[in-house]
């Protein structure tokens, strides 16, 4: 197994750090060979607030996955999120060369032209770009223009930007934990890779990834991503609502939410009583399960209302007919999809879990592992290798450059060879 190519995804969240290690299969799937998870206390809404705690959580998560897989993981695809994220759709244009054929150089130049059209304040940087589609001589909807005949190439590009300091602090924690950042991937893009189907993308779909500190949003229309963002309300807020209104500790509130929580009072029992211990007191009290649901529902409705308003402001809400896919740890309460559908004007909604996996797939089938799995799937698509460290990547790059240089020079030195 150690001689095979393998990949790793690292999801650094507000409540947990998750590492997923997999081996790409011949049919484009992923064989899960290692999974690690560790509680996270060093982040708040995607921003590092405690370096040492974050580094420790990353190391524990990666080590657990390493031990399970028995593989020396040195690099990983790392997820990036936070309410500092902003996205925009832009277009780049270039004219092809004398051959009248689209070359790889043309493709790279048109993407760069699109990125260069984005105005960035000094404290922000582009963290992710993805081409929505190309157009050759005005003919749009082209996915692979390389080798096509034409004199003008346009590219519609989705560009995501964020705070440079926030991203650098996260990457430093990963590096200080001993892991090379092979690529940084926007988390809703990674999650969508694991839980959204091609048919949903074609019809138009909203992905809502409810994490611990942020809720990530990605919208796809006609198969291409057209909006990404994050809002600073998520699962932790439901927990704190329970803690404050029931006057119990945050740890007890989290346990009650996971064990007895429902997204709607209609799905809760009026007769079932839950025993709680008030903060600062020894005696216990009993509260009905329905009360817990009545506390949770307004916060979930607020999350979905903000998602709806955000997508409306982006101008793409009316283009979504494929429905809503909800994922993340905050999506697992029974009835969550019904609440989402009610707030989002009756759009069909479902809870999405990773699919198309083999090996230790049962370890990652829950929505809370969707981002980690998606990161590993993207790494597999891009032919990454988690066993390669930064210095090895740099060395491979130097050797590749020297080989290409030799290929150009050798025929001139040894013309008859």
Question: Could you characterize what this model shows?
Answer:
The protein is α/β, with parallel strands linked by helices. It has a domain at 86-161: Dna Ligase, domain 1 (2-Layer Sandwich). It is built from eleven helices and 19 strands. It has helices at residues 51-69, 104-116, 164-176, 187-195, 198-203, 235-246, 250-260, 289-313, 336-343, 370-381, 390-413, and strands spanning 7-12, 16-24, 30-39, 43-44, 47-48, 75-80, 86-95, 124-136, 139-142, 152-163, 180-186, 205-210, 215-221, 224-231, 273-277, 284-288, 324-327, 349-351, 357-359. It has a six-stranded mixed sheet with strand order 11-6-1-2-3-19, with helices on both faces. Strands 14-13-12-17-18 form a five-stranded mixed sheet, with helices on both faces. It has a four-stranded antiparallel sheet with strand order 7-10-8-9. A hairpin with a 3-residue loop joins strand 1 (7-12) and strand 2 (16-24). Helix 6 crosses helix 7. The radius of gyration is 24 Å and the shape is globular. The two termini are 40 Å apart. Residues 393-401 have low confidence and may be disordered.
Termini separation: 40 Å
- Judged by helices, strands and strand pairing, the structural class is alpha/beta
Which bin fits the share of residues in helices?
Answer: 25-40%
User: Main beta sheet: strand number and arrangement?
Assistant: 6 strands, mixed
Task: Sum up the overall morphology in one term.
Answer: globular
Based on CA atoms alone, the radius of gyration comes out at: 24 Å
Number of strands: 19
CATH class value of the domain at 86-161: Alpha Beta
- Using the 3D structure, state the CATH architecture of the domain at 86-161: 2-Layer Sandwich
Oligomer: single chain
Strand content: 25-35%
Mean pLDDT: 91
Q: Please, how many helices?
A: 11
Task: Determine the CATH topology of the domain at 86-161.
Answer: Dna Ligase, domain 1
Q: What pattern of helices and strands is seen along the backbone?
A: EEEEEHEEHEEEHEHHEEEHHEEHEHEEHH
Outline the low-pLDDT stretches.
393-401
Strand order of the largest sheet: 11-6-1-2-3-19
């Amino acid at each position: 197994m150690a001689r095979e190519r393998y990949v790793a995804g690292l999801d650094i969240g507000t409540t947990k750090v998750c590492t997923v290690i997999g081996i790409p299969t011949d049919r484009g799937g992923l064989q899960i060979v290692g999974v690690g998870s560790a509680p996270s206390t060093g982040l708040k809404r995607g921003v590092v607030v405690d370096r040492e705690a974050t580094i420790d959580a990353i190391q524990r998560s990666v080590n657990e996955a390493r031990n399970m897989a028995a593989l020396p993981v040195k690099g990983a695809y790392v997820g990036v999120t936070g309410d500092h994220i902003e996205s925009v759709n832009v277009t780049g244009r270039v004219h092809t060369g004398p051959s009248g054929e689209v070359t790889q150089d043309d493709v790279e130049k048109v993407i760069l032209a699109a990125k260069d059209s984005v105005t960035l304040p000094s404290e922000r940087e582009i963290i992710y770009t993805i081409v929505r589609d190309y157009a050759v001589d005005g003919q749009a909807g082209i996915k692979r223009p390389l080798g096509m005949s034409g004199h003008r190439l346009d590219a519609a590009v989705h560009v995501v930007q964020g705070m440079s300091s926030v991203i650098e602090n996260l990457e430093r924690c990963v590096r200080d934990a001993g892991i090379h950042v092979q690529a940084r991937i926007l988390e809703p893009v990674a999650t969508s890779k694991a839980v959204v189907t091609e048919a949903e993308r074609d019809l138009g779909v909203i992905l809502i990834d409810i994490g611990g500190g942020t809720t990530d949003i990605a919208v796809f229309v006609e198969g291409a991503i057209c909006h990404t963002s994050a809002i600073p309300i998520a699962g932790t807020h439901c927990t704190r609502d329970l803690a404050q209104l029931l006057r119990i500790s945050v740890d007890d509130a989290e346990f009650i939410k996971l064990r007895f929580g429902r997204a709607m009072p209609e799905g809760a029992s009026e007769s079932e009583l839950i025993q709680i211990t008030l903060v600062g007191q020894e005696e216990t009290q009993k509260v009905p399960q329905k009360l817990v649901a009545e506390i949770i529902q307004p916060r979930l409705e607020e999350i979905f209302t903000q998602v709806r308003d955000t997508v409306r402001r982006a101008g793409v809400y009316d283009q979504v007919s494929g429905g809503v896919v909800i994922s993340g740890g905050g999506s697992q309460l029974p009835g969550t999809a019904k609440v989402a559908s009610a707030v989002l004007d009756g759009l069909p909604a479902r809870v999405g879990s990773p699919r198309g996996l083999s090996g230790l797939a049962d370890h990652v089938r829950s929505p809370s592992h969707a981002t980690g799995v998606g990161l590993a799937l993207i790494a597999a698509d891009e032919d990454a290798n988690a066993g390669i460290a930064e210095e090895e990547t740099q060395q491979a790059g130097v050797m590749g450059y020297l080989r290409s240089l030799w290929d150009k020079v050798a025929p001139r030195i040894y013309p008859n060879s």
